[in-house]
Protein backbone atom coordinates (compact mmCIF):
# COMPACT_ATOMS: atom_id res chain seq x y z
CA UNK A 1 0.00 0.00 0.00
CA UNK A 2 2.79 2.41 0.97
CA UNK A 3 4.64 1.72 -2.32
CA UNK A 4 1.49 2.43 -4.31
CA UNK A 5 1.07 5.80 -2.57
CA UNK A 6 4.74 6.64 -3.17
CA UNK A 7 4.41 5.59 -6.81
CA UNK A 8 1.35 7.80 -7.31
CA UNK A 9 3.10 10.71 -5.59
CA UNK A 10 6.09 10.29 -7.89
CA UNK A 11 3.90 10.18 -11.00
CA UNK A 12 2.03 13.30 -9.84
CA UNK A 13 5.31 15.10 -9.22
CA UNK A 14 6.64 14.19 -12.67
CA UNK A 15 3.45 15.38 -14.37
CA UNK A 16 3.63 18.62 -12.41
CA UNK A 17 7.24 19.11 -13.50
CA UNK A 18 6.38 18.36 -17.13
CA UNK A 19 3.66 21.00 -17.18
CA UNK A 20 6.00 23.50 -15.55
CA UNK A 21 8.66 22.94 -18.21
CA UNK A 22 6.33 22.89 -21.24
CA UNK A 23 5.64 26.66 -21.29
CA UNK A 24 9.39 27.36 -21.12
CA UNK A 25 9.99 24.95 -24.00
CA UNK A 26 7.21 26.59 -26.02
CA UNK A 27 8.77 30.01 -25.39
CA UNK A 28 12.15 28.66 -26.51
CA UNK A 29 10.54 27.28 -29.68
CA UNK A 30 8.86 30.62 -30.39
CA UNK A 31 12.16 32.46 -29.93
CA UNK A 32 13.94 30.00 -32.22
CA UNK A 33 11.26 30.39 -34.91
CA UNK A 34 11.47 34.18 -34.64
CA UNK A 35 15.25 34.03 -35.01
CA UNK A 36 14.81 31.79 -38.06
CA UNK A 37 12.36 34.24 -39.62
CA UNK A 38 14.79 37.13 -39.14
CA UNK A 39 17.63 35.07 -40.62
CA UNK A 40 15.45 34.12 -43.61
CA UNK A 41 14.58 37.72 -44.37
CA UNK A 42 17.83 39.52 -43.75
CA UNK A 43 20.20 37.77 -41.35
CA UNK A 44 21.79 35.26 -43.69
CA UNK A 45 24.06 36.65 -46.41
CA UNK A 46 22.82 36.34 -49.06
CA UNK A 47 19.33 36.44 -47.58
CA UNK A 48 17.15 33.40 -48.31
CA UNK A 49 14.28 35.72 -49.27
CA UNK A 50 16.23 36.99 -52.27
CA UNK A 51 15.90 33.64 -54.01
CA UNK A 52 13.08 31.71 -52.32
CA UNK A 53 9.36 32.34 -52.09
CA UNK A 54 7.87 31.80 -48.64
CA UNK A 55 4.49 33.34 -47.92
CA UNK A 56 4.95 33.57 -44.12
CA UNK A 57 8.09 35.67 -44.63
CA UNK A 58 6.55 37.82 -47.37
CA UNK A 59 9.29 36.54 -49.70
CA UNK A 60 8.69 36.30 -53.43
CA UNK A 61 12.10 35.18 -54.70
CA UNK A 62 12.03 33.37 -58.02
CA UNK A 63 15.58 31.98 -58.37
CA UNK A 64 15.27 29.02 -56.00
CA UNK A 65 12.25 26.81 -55.48
CA UNK A 66 9.12 28.06 -53.74
CA UNK A 67 9.41 26.69 -50.23
CA UNK A 68 5.62 26.83 -49.86
CA UNK A 69 5.39 24.28 -52.69
CA UNK A 70 8.46 22.22 -51.72
CA UNK A 71 7.48 21.98 -48.02
CA UNK A 72 10.90 20.76 -46.83
CA UNK A 73 11.37 19.32 -43.36
CA UNK A 74 13.97 20.83 -41.03
CA UNK A 75 16.56 18.13 -41.77
CA UNK A 76 16.39 18.83 -45.51
CA UNK A 77 16.72 22.58 -44.96
CA UNK A 78 19.67 22.16 -42.58
CA UNK A 79 21.44 19.89 -45.07
CA UNK A 80 20.94 22.41 -47.89
CA UNK A 81 22.19 25.23 -45.66
CA UNK A 82 25.31 23.31 -44.63
CA UNK A 83 26.22 21.88 -48.04
CA UNK A 84 24.60 24.19 -50.57
CA UNK A 85 22.53 22.72 -53.41
CA UNK A 86 22.32 23.71 -57.06
CA UNK A 87 22.84 27.47 -57.25
CA UNK A 88 22.34 27.86 -53.50
CA UNK A 89 25.60 28.52 -51.65
CA UNK A 90 26.66 26.77 -48.47
CA UNK A 91 26.15 28.74 -45.27
CA UNK A 92 28.54 26.46 -43.38
CA UNK A 93 30.94 28.76 -41.54
CA UNK A 94 28.69 31.78 -42.20
CA UNK A 95 25.93 30.69 -39.81
CA UNK A 96 26.37 28.93 -36.48
CA UNK A 97 24.80 25.52 -35.84
CA UNK A 98 22.17 27.24 -33.69
CA UNK A 99 21.35 29.68 -36.49
CA UNK A 100 21.09 26.85 -39.02
CA UNK A 101 18.77 24.97 -36.64
CA UNK A 102 16.62 28.08 -36.15
CA UNK A 103 16.42 28.79 -39.88
CA UNK A 104 15.64 25.14 -40.67
CA UNK A 105 12.92 24.96 -38.00
CA UNK A 106 11.35 28.20 -39.25
CA UNK A 107 11.30 27.17 -42.92
CA UNK A 108 9.90 23.74 -42.09
CA UNK A 109 7.12 25.19 -39.92
CA UNK A 110 6.29 28.16 -42.18
CA UNK A 111 6.17 26.03 -45.33
CA UNK A 112 4.17 23.22 -43.77
CA UNK A 113 7.06 20.76 -43.96
CA UNK A 114 7.23 20.06 -40.23
CA UNK A 115 4.97 17.29 -39.08
From TrEMBL:
Residues 1-26 form the signal peptide. One of its GO terms (molecular function) is heme binding. InterPro entries: Cyt_c-like_dom, Cyt_c-like_dom_sf, Cyt_C_IC, Cytochrome_c550/c551-like. Residues 31-111 form the Cytochrome c domain. The keyword NAD does not apply. It holds the Pfam family Cytochrome_CBB3. Keywords: Electron transport, Heme, Iron, Metal-binding, Signal, Transport. It comes from the Bacteria. This is Cytochrome c6.
Amino acid sequence: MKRTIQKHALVAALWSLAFTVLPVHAADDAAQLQQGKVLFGQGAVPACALCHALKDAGAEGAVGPSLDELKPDAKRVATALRNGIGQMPSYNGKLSDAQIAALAAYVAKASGGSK
